[in-house]
Amino acid sequence: MNDMQSHNISGESTKPYILKKCIALLLSCASSTYKFKQVHAFSIRRGIPLSSPEMGKYLIFSLVSLSGPMRYAQKIFNQIQFPNIFTWNTMIRGYAESENPYPAIEIHNKMCVNSVAPDTHTYPFVLKAIAKVIDVREGEKVHCVTIRNGFESLVFVQNSLVHFYGAIGQAEDAHKVFEEMSDKNLVAWNSVINGYALNSRPNETLTLYRRMVFEGVKPDGFTLVSLLTASAELGALALGRRAHVFMLKVGLDKNLHAANALLDLYAKCGNVKEAEQVFDELEEDSVVSWTSLIVGLAVNGFGERALELFKEMERKGFVPTEITFVGVLYACSHCGLADKGFAYFERMQKEFGIKPKIEHYGCMVDLLGRAGLVEKAYKYITDMPLQPNAVIWRTLLGACSIHGHLALAEMTRNHLKLLEPKHSGDYVLLSNLYAAERRWSDVHKLRRTMLKEGVKKVPGHSLVELRNRVHEFVMGDRTHPKTEAIYAMLAEMTRLLRLEGYVPHTSNVLADIEEEEKETALAYHSEKIAIAFMLISTPPGTSIRIVKNLRVCADCHLAIKLISKVFDREIVVRDRSRFHHFTNGSCSCKDYW
């Protein structure tokens, strides 16, 4: 501060000089909040008023650039008599990038009331804030204002609109704005691709990525995160591996966000070895990396390894997050470790000060349900400090279905009627329980109710990837070009399985039909058709990976165990509930499914 102390100058004539000196000093303290405060104090001592638009402008700019407290910036802003557009924009930007973006919208509204004309930088900042708080109406209002003011055709504004619509879940609107852009830069491509990825639209994500590459736009780390997210959702391992090769080629494997997305891809495609390899090769790991692998191991049925990794993470000094504990509790649930699960749940609160969220309570209900303690699970739900949501009650309904607790299932279904009355899965679970008890009149009554209420059952499907293309099969599917060969393989599979002692689990066909018809129905489940297709389409010994939108039934589970032994194949099935790694006649889930 010697420079400031050496200028012991007073009088009105010297103020312009002092003002310039203060501005120069402010611009030089880009990395020090302490130095900023010294300069601010110096300006006050030298009589530079905060009402000066020029001084206020640079004070606020420096503070926002330092990610300083916005309360401090607001006090300065309130004293400026006539802030210019740069200062208004800086305030909006500061709040948009803060943890509380709401004031950015208020400042923009105040700016409009004061008839301050916006410029090209105003809307990107305000739209960023609106996207953060997911205020659809306010965003649409700003979009209309940009059209009225003639800013809609500016690339910065268009990029922000694409990001906004994607972030609030309106991917089609984001795509519409994108298609209207004459200059589609990398930011625009990333925003529209990410909009579809965030909203669980993997097919559209991959289609846009292919078009982007075809048009000669080079992807970056943000693009790859979206691509890997979509590939993981579809179980498109080959496409994910191609993205991995590209990352290695251009050095993006060092990008921590992209590397974490890659780790997540391999875990969600059931390739745990490659997930662990990516983790081991990380130059800089983080709690996100550790959490991704812990959750990946847990959902793949390697609960003990997940818990060992959690212990190692603690030894290395990483502090677990609430998401880490979701993975830990999930591991305990899917491995039948009820006591360990409750111990970790207690540690999470007492040792780490993490207040349980609905996801943690969901894991605990799932843990009790899988252990067959459905009545205890029901009491646990009723005693929860949080209001149970539909997912919690549906978890209990699923457990009642597995363990045959019809009375409790009916009570649980009554709760679900109030929360999500038209969810088809709830009708199906209760219908299955009635059918298992041979209460056919109740089954027919439920189905009549579904028809009356317009509730449609979600059809089961299985996805497999072959030569960069995803093939989809449904029950009894005969639409594939290789249908004849597929059904010939299905017949051969059934013949060989019977030689191994396989007897169809006909209790899974919950319909009032003859036994022979039940066996036929079981033979044509979508995952069996998918396996038959892969057996005729890939060399012996090739792993088969299936993504199924519903839970694997007990008959298919038994059959796939035997198929893995008879055909000497590793078969990985990702169903709605978990992963199943079938090898040599056994499954990683140890039948806790």
Automatic annotation (TrEMBL):
<keyword id="KW-0677">Repeat</keyword>
<feature type="repeat" description="PPR">
    <location>
        <begin position="286"/>
        <end position="320"/>
    </location>
</feature>
<feature type="repeat" description="PPR">
    <location>
        <begin position="84"/>
        <end position="118"/>
    </location>
</feature>
<dbReference type="Pfam" id="PF20431">
    <property type="entry name" value="E_motif"/>
</dbReference>
<dbReference type="GO" id="GO:0008270">
    <property type="term" value="F:zinc ion binding"/>
</dbReference>
<comment type="similarity">
    <text>Belongs to the PPR family. PCMP-H subfamily.</text>
</comment>
<dbReference type="GO" id="GO:0003723">
    <property type="term" value="F:RNA binding"/>
</dbReference>
<dbReference type="InterPro" id="IPR046960">
    <property type="entry name" value="PPR_At4g14850-like_plant"/>
</dbReference>
<dbReference type="Pfam" id="PF13041">
    <property type="entry name" value="PPR_2"/>
</dbReference>
<dbReference type="InterPro" id="IPR011990">
    <property type="entry name" value="TPR-like_helical_dom_sf"/>
</dbReference>
<dbReference type="GO" id="GO:0009451">
    <property type="term" value="P:RNA modification"/>
</dbReference>
<protein>
    <submittedName>
        <fullName>Pentatricopeptide repeat-containing protein</fullName>
    </submittedName>
</protein>
<feature type="domain" description="DYW">
    <location>
        <begin position="501"/>
        <end position="593"/>
    </location>
</feature>
<dbReference type="InterPro" id="IPR002885">
    <property type="entry name" value="PPR_rpt"/>
</dbReference>
<dbReference type="Pfam" id="PF14432">
    <property type="entry name" value="DYW_deaminase"/>
</dbReference>
<dbReference type="Pfam" id="PF01535">
    <property type="entry name" value="PPR"/>
</dbReference>
<feature type="repeat" description="PPR">
    <location>
        <begin position="255"/>
        <end position="285"/>
    </location>
</feature>
<feature type="repeat" description="PPR">
    <location>
        <begin position="185"/>
        <end position="219"/>
    </location>
</feature>
<dbReference type="InterPro" id="IPR032867">
    <property type="entry name" value="DYW_dom"/>
</dbReference>
<dbReference type="InterPro" id="IPR046848">
    <property type="entry name" value="E_motif"/>
</dbReference>
